[in-house]
Amino acid sequence: MCGLAGFLTFSQQFSKDDLRKMSGCIAHRGPDSEGFFYNTTCGLGHRRLSILDLSEAANQPFFSANGRYVMVYNGEVYNYQEIAAKLNVPLKTTSDTEVILEAFAKWGPQFVHELNGMFAIAIYDQEKDELFLFRDRMGIKPVFFYQDRTGFAFASELKALTKIKYLQGRLSLNKEAISQFLYVGYIARPNTIYNEIRKMDSGCYLVVNKQGMRSEVYWRLEDQVKPELITDFKTAKEQLKDLVLSSVKYRMISDVPFGTFLSGGIDSSVVTAAAQFNSAKPVKTFTIDFKEAKHSEARHAREVARYLGTEHYEFMVTQKEVVEWAGQIPDIYDEPYSDSSAIPTLLVSEMARRHVTMTLSGDGGDESFMGYSMYTWADRLENPFLKTFRRPIGTLLAKLGNRYERASFLFNYPDESKKRSNTFSQEQYMFTEAEIAHLLTPDFRQAPSIRELWDVKARKLSVMEQQAFFDLKQYLQDDLLVKIDRASMRHSLETRVPLLDYRIVSFALNLSPELKRHKGVSKYLLKEVLYDFVPQEYFNRPKWGFNIPLANWLKTDLRFLIEENLNEKVVKRFGIVKYEVVAELQKQFFGGRDFLFNRIWLLIILHKWLLQNEGNFSGSNPG
């Protein structure tokens, strides 16, 4: 796991000094070594967090044996030993880095089909002055880029691109990105908060040369859907169990100490159980707890750890620690990002890094195996009666008070084409499309654009499958994986996600919905695999998630964030949202409409980011 940055320029608008500044601001991603390649046309920078082959011989940039190619790389390829056997070439290191580059040298860009892992790979062809940039199938490792007619620059984090001298004064706020953020809490690729910088898509590679840039897709979720569903329980369970054990075993390959994040929920427990099954000694497990949390899973994590025999570490978090990290969210995530579970993720990563350099996480289980309540809502909203009378039902619910008023927004989606994004938005307590239109000032008013449907041709997906597919394509990649990458790498901690092995994702896409949600039981098949390792009674409780009591804290210890970021002077200074609407929202929240807490949080994060980054963009309203 590392950080990378670089550029290809044919008019020298980027410099060696830019490269050093880009690398310097992502030093947290790789504190073990720093390396550069520069030849006036191409610059490559690398920050290394040593996981495999800890020797200096595996440092980057790395040159191919024939001397033609030079590479910087972020991530891990778990099946590198099998690829090395196919290459049949002498190797001078025991790292996956060398195997990846020699595979490219031998097979060309199609080598990417051989890789099982998480990766962002940049390879420069010195003979052709051509740059190749690869991103993994599920978008686990990030890539941001800038492109114009004479240059191309890229980095693992957005902040690195803002350090380029040529781009300073050229960046402007992306209005579509702002409306997306208010609607779903994150900015969906290819957008970033800046019009001029984009996020690279997953499952593709870019080829950049003097003629420009082209993008090639090598893997799509849509193409993994098959005509026939897997319906036999026994067969499906055996296949999934084998896949989970294989995936976890791959991700345990490491030359440094590792552990697992263990919340006590299904996903982290199945990953931990598989890791302990594959390990000859106790696996280190990490969990955190909140003194003020209404629903704590720390006790359950402790019980699972005790049953599995892991070496368990637990950290009690106070509001003081939360306050310290809450203010750093805009700097860590580089653009408006509202997922408040980033705070506990930062805290558990900080704790884990005291003991290990690599961790396993359970991310991906909910999206692949239908773990969210929004899938029930998606199915419910398809009921012909509810579809016909949804607007009067929504009006009635809005009059019944707090809890029912929140539910009313689920019925008031604009039209069928926006049902999935509205269901997600309102399950997360974000702004509706209508509220955004009322909130934004005329200069920034733009409807949120979130892609909801894809060309899945093999078979028609059920409404729950469509909602889950939306989450796999959008929420998982642009929110959850962003959260875990930035939070763990802030502490120089590598985090691997076994349930997002592309083999498991492909399997789950073709699993019968009846084996995902069975008689009201969510993640049914994944739970059945888990129960082979840990008895079912350890999990007979509601799902609470990895959250902080944000609604309560915004009225107490975190109230200062409202006062600092949502006062009249700050809101009018940027002129993006109407102050009178923001003031009314605060009044309603403090008056008892607690479900508005996430809308308040969105506005806090937006304005805190604006205050911290206004030197990077043009077009703010001085007020």
**Rg computed from alpha carbons, rounded to a whole number of angstroms:** 24 Å
- Provide the β-strand percentage band: 15-25%
Overall number of strands? 17
CATH topology of the largest domain: Rossmann fold
Question: Can you tell me the number of structural domains?
Answer: 3
Helix-and-strand structural type: alpha+beta
Task: Provide a quick synopsis of the model.
Helices cover 40% and strands 15% of the residues. By secondary structure, the protein is of the alpha+beta class.
Main attributes of the structure:
Glutamine Phosphoribosylpyrophosphate, subunit 1, domain 1; 6-stranded antiparallel sheet; 623 residues; asparagine biosynthesis; alpha+beta; 3 domains; 26 helices; Rossmann fold; globular
Structural account:
The chain has 623 residues and is an alpha+beta fold. The chain has 3 domains: 2-218, Glutamine Phosphoribosylpyrophosphate, subunit 1, domain 1; 223-370 and 462-539, Rossmann fold (3-Layer(aba) Sandwich), CATH 3.40.50.620; 375-457 and 549-616, no CATH class. The chain contains 26 helices and 17 strands. It has a 6-stranded antiparallel β-sheet. A 6-stranded antiparallel β-sheet has the order 4-5-6-7-11-12, covered by helices on one side. Strands 15-14-13-16-17 form a 5-stranded parallel β-sheet, with helices on both faces. Strand 11 (204-209) and strand 12 (212-217) form a beta hairpin. Helix 2 packs across helix 3 (96-107). The longest helix is centred in the last third of the chain and has 28 residues, at 463-490. 49% of the residues are buried.
